[in-house]
Amino acid sequence: MRVLHVVTAFARGDEDPITPWLGRLLIAQRTAGLDARVLAPTYRGGGAREWRGVPVTRFRYAPRLFETLTHDETVPDRLRSRPAYAALLPGYLLAGAIAAAREAARGLDVVHVHWPVPHALFGAASRAIGGGPAVVSSYYSVEINWIERRLPALAPFLRWSIETADAVTAISTSTAAALRRYVERDVVVIPFAAAIGDDADAPPPRSRTGDAPFRILFVGRLVERKGVEVLIEAAAALSSSLDLRLDVIGSGPEGDRLADAARRHGIADKVTFHGRVGEAGLLAAYRTADVFVLPAVVDSKGDTEGLGVVLLEALREGVPVVASDAGGITDIVQDGVTGWLVPSGDAGALGRALVAVAADPAEAARRVERGREQIERRFSLPGIVTALSECYERARALRLAGPPAV
């Protein structure tokens, strides 16, 4: 089966950290016998045309200097910070639709559309080709929140994208529920962005020993919805009674403001902003952390975590997890079972959970083990590849029986 993944951004080179989960998924799909490939925009006229054996088709949509709508940050964030970039959207949509149609003309069974707002147009263009492929649309929640809070005029487009897909998947149960508010249809929850591979080499759960500082780790983009300022506030409240260090890995538009917050709370000497790190640096951070925290909030745009993939990575590396009850996080963290769950935006509750982790390493280790059991059951890469393959087969059967009305 030949499957084309339509995405906003894809690795520009072998060591590019963009969407590592998608890279793992594509490699696993190809290993399983699917001819998985990618359609993505160029970045400044360039970008790898092949990535670790995965074919990549890049489409041009503007003069080289201006092809920065994607990759550096999400498109909604780019448009919010620099509204003039909206002028690139018509070219992006037209060039992407033409590229998708050309790929379909060469022979495709399935077009897997990620972020269907606006990429459902690319799926429709590919399906317009005689005997065109089935379209599978996958939603992450951010696009739904974005439309509901910022661009309600696009709600009919969102509804159309759901109605016309041959199959629909959601990254979490909360995202599936949001989609059903628009169209009552079957939505398959497949957390493929969280696919975790073989954990045979994963280390045992960490236990804090001796008088070493209690190391708190955050990994992610430094944007409002991640809630890092809440974590800084919680760490500041604990710093007089607990010898702690906070490691923040990632970059983003909130970086300077968060550094100011650490200074304002008097813990600048206890917080290290590492920026982006490579795979080796990230692995080292996980394996020296005593707890991983994802303090997500609903931001001013209405966005929050679609799932929280980093929580799975932390559990796999043996690190206890503390997270807020926002978005799809509750699909991963069950309070008292696989980690500690606290009310979103509540620095006091977050601080109390951190104290609990530090005070009872044995209980933390038990929750890590239960978290790993859940990963194996619900988020293993082989299981997700199988679930997606079954989804593709159903979509293809529906397509061959007769496409939905567009």
Overview of the structural elements:
This protein has 14 helices and 14 strands. It has 406 residues and is an alpha/beta fold. The chain has an 8-stranded mixed β-sheet with strand order 3-4-2-1-5-6-7-8, with helices on both faces. Strands 11-10-9-12-13-14 form a 6-stranded parallel β-sheet, with helices on both faces. Helix 3 runs parallel beside helix 4, helix 4 packs across helix 6 and helix 8 packs across helix 12. It is globular, with a radius of gyration of 21 Å. The mean pLDDT is 91.
Order of helices and strands: EHEEEHHEHEHHEHEEHEHEHEHEEHHH
**C-alpha Rg (nearest Å):** 21 Å
- Quick check: average pLDDT? 91
- Secondary-structure-derived class: alpha/beta
Shape: globular
Low-confidence stretches: none
The proportion of strand residues reads: 15-25%
How far from one another are the termini?
A: 24 Å
Strand order of the largest sheet: 3-4-2-1-5-6-7-8
> What profile does the largest beta sheet have?
8 strands, mixed
Helical segment tally? Answer: 14
Architecture blueprint of SSEs:
Layout: E1 2-6, H1 20-31, E2 35-41, E3 50-51, E4 54-59, H2 75-81, H3 89-105, E5 110-114, H4 116-127, E6 134-139, H5 142-149, H6 155-164, E7 167-170, H7 173-180, E8 188-189, E9 214-219, H8 228-238, E10 244-249, H9 255-264, E11 271-275, H10 279-286, E12 291-294, H11 309-316, E13 321-324, E14 340-342, H12 347-359, H13 361-378, H14 381-401
Parallel strand pairs: 1-2, 1-5, 2-4, 5-6, 6-7, 7-8, 9-10, 9-12, 10-11, 12-13, 13-14
Antiparallel strand pairs: 3-4
Helix pairs in contact: 3-4, 4-6, 8-12
